[in-house]
Amino acid sequence: MDSIVRSGWLMVLAALVLGGMYVVGNYVSEQDYLPVVISVDGQGRVFASPDIAQISFGVETGRQKTAEGAMDVLSEKMNAIVAAVKAQGVEEKDIATESFYLSPAYDWNEGERIDRGFEARQSLTVKVRALGSVGDIVSAVTSAGANQVGGVSFTIDDPEELRAQARAKAVEQAKDKAEVMAQSLGMQLGKLKGFNEGYGGYVENYRKMDMATAEGMGGAGPVSPPMPAGEEEISVTVSLSYELK
Question: Which residue range is the domain that position 26 belongs to?
Answer without folding.
Answer: 1-33
